[in-house]
What we know:
Helices cover 72% and strands 0% of the residues. By secondary structure, the protein is mostly helical.
Amino acid sequence: MPRPKSVPDDQVLSAIAAIHAQGGDKAVTFASVSAATGLAPPTLVQRYRSRDGMMDWALNRAWAALEQATADATPILAEKGPAAFLKALSGTGPFPLAALVSEGRGPDLQDRAAQWRDTVEALLAQAMGNPRSQMEPARIAFAAWQGQMQWDPAGGKKFRLKDALRRIS
């Protein structure tokens, strides 16, 4: 069966994210992405130049998806509050948020992560009242949400973000 000449970027991104989820950063190679997408390794080299270039492309696409999801979820913040907003952001995008943050592969991606965090915290502060006086509770809410996302898969379901938000706002 001949290899496809073209595979949409979204399909390549999904393949990279799936390989990364199964085996981590080192598992993402031209060979593994080729096997998952059907694209020839030289096609991937031509498209991304290097393995790091391919990972940077995938992570930038994932950040763009998360930034768009944040913009799309902003009306939820006004309608249903901070807990619903954060819940809407959980599990969005091809990479888990923890992978995006831990794969800060250089200053550009680290800056993008910090800018996104600042945006979410500012939106939370605004929803909690006066943005200036609510920045600390918003930062605590963000950290609690991140902790919940980290520990829920390991059985930490006793923590309720909604209750924590009520106590700090």
